[in-house]
Amino acid sequence: MDVSFKGIARLVSFVDKIESETYPEAPSCIHSEITAKVLETLLPTYQISEDARILDIGCGQGPALDIFRTKGYLSAIGITLNNEDVRVCREAGHDVHKMDQSFLDFGDESFDFVWARHVIEHSIFPYFTLTEFARVLAKGGMLYLEVPAPETACHHETNPNHYSVFGHGSWTSLLDRCGFIVRDTVRFAFTTPMGPDEYWGFICKKP
């Protein structure tokens, strides 16, 4: 593909614009509860060892990182694009870097477990982003990807910085194209002040 320098410059400018649309996100009850519930089951079921190299993509202000540390996982790293989230996490003693999920500054196969909860919908090109997740994940490693369902009462597809809110089949297809094997899926259905809502979780392995 012949991409002009002007085209690359336009893409960089667009990515910079999207970064400016991020916002700090303190842990909420529903997100914290789901995070704790998933990790309580997933870590022992898929035998994620305490010395596993873990990457928390879009770590926010560290709810998953807190759980990893409490459970003895001391090699967990977080990334986020928001400066305030970086500050809060570092003050809590977490190893967190400011980084775009689509351009991971880590070597190939750097991690054994990638935790990516409610981040991929913020990608303008999720196919490319998922290939980055696959690149930094070691063979035999696990990915947990969670996304909001489209067209619920909350209408996540209308969120100003949700660019990729797709159907269930679209996500499984993209994961397959990126080389992941979907080992299991989970659904979280609940009611919000706006009405019924739903999240989907995909537990994946890199063969």
Automatic annotation (TrEMBL):
Key word Transferase present: yes
Which species is this UniProt entry from? Oryzomonas rubra
A Gene Ontology molecular function term of the record: methyltransferase activity
Q: Which GO terms describe its biological process?
A: methylation
Gene3D superfamilies reported for this sequence: Vaccinia Virus protein VP39
Q: Which Pfam families match?
A: Methyltransf_23 (PF13489)
Question: Entry's InterPro entries?
Answer: SAM-dependent_MTases_sf (IPR029063)
Task: Please report the name of this protein according to its UniProt entry.
Answer: Class I SAM-dependent methyltransferase
